[in-house]
Amino acid sequence: MSLSERLSPYQPSALAMLRLITAILFIEHGSQKLFGFPPAPYAITTLFFVAGVLELVGGILVLLGLFTRPVAFLLSGEMAIAYFTVHMPINFFPANNQGDGAILFCFIFLFMVFSGPGDWALDNRQRR
């Protein structure tokens, strides 16, 4: 049996772990913008407030695995906008503009649009 065949049964659980860790990290960004915890090194503007609401509420929904695909689509778009409006004007290269996180969040959420939530998600209970 190949390594791929041995690992395949664990794919839904691995996807769930990716979803959970991504959501927890994303919630932290939302709470930073909305509640100042952890303390933010920047001033909160209206745009940052809207992003904070999306990140906190969207992160909680992704954490629960509830409406994962549409929420992940929305959050992927938010991160693309964040990259091009906040990070890219600073510098073209992600390593220089601190946009690595925005790019990773964007593509992890885009992956979830197509993959679904994996195991341990409320979306799975709704289908039954």
TrEMBL record:
GO cellular component, one term: plasma membrane
Membrane topology note: Multi-pass membrane protein
Family that this chain belongs to: Belongs to the DoxX family.
N-terminal signal peptide: none
Keywords: Cell membrane, Membrane, Transmembrane, Transmembrane helix
Organism this protein belongs to: Rhizobium lusitanum
Major localisation: membrane
Protein name according to UniProt: DoxX family membrane protein
Subcellular localization: Cell membrane
Transmembrane segments: 42-64, 71-90, 102-122
Cited InterPro entries: DoxX, DoxX-like_oxidoreductase
